[in-house]
């Protein structure tokens, strides 16, 4: 099964741009395969401006995000594997989505060995 993450990134990107906001991508710059300007990395992370006027050749693929941009006047080709994308959000209002590390494995949760019937279920207990 394909990952849901690239579809969510594309949908949120479209929503941000349609509302004339600035899409920002938070990236784990230490992840394998990430190609970003290292001088702008802080605490192992980098925030990338994906505004259509700031990038060229933007590709929001299923495996990676790729685009060309200028950093300090120097052109650079950026590559970010989907597993390294931590969040996408609008700069102006912070609305978007944060991705957790666990959601990327694309494996279904383990099935219970024996399904519980209504008579064998435990009632919830509230403790203070």
What does this structure look like?
There is one protein chain. The protein is mainly beta and 128 residues long. The chain has a single domain (5-102), classed as SspB-like (SH3 type barrels, Roll). It is built from 1 helix and 7 strands. It has one helix at 5-18; strands at 23-28, 45-49, 55-60, 64-71, 74-81, 85-90, 96-98. The strands form 2 sheets. It has a 4-stranded antiparallel β-sheet, with helices on one face. It has a 3-stranded antiparallel β-sheet with strand order 3-4-5, covered by helices on one side. It is elongated. The N and C termini lie far apart (42 Å).
Report a brief summary of the structure:
The protein is mainly β. The protein is built from one helix and seven strands, in the order αβββββββ. The longest helix has 14 residues, at 5-18.
Key words describing this protein structure:
single chain, 128 residues, mainly beta, SH3 type barrels, three-stranded antiparallel β-sheet, 1 helix, 7 strands, elongated
Strand portion: 25-35%
State the distance separating the first and last CA atoms: 42 Å
Number of helices: 1
CATH topology: SH3 type barrels
- SSE order in H/E notation? HEEEEEEE
Q: Give the tally of β-strands.
A: 7
Radius of gyration from CA coordinates: 19 Å
The unreliable regions are none
Helix content range = 10-25%
Largest sheet: 4 strands, antiparallel
Kindly report the name of the CATH homologous superfamily. SspB-like
Q: Globular, elongated, flat, extended or rod-shaped: what is the shape?
A: elongated
Average of per-residue pLDDT values: 88
Overall domain count? 1
Q: Per CATH, which architecture?
A: Roll
Strand order of the largest sheet: 2-1-6-7
State the CATH class: Mainly Beta
* Main structural class: mainly beta
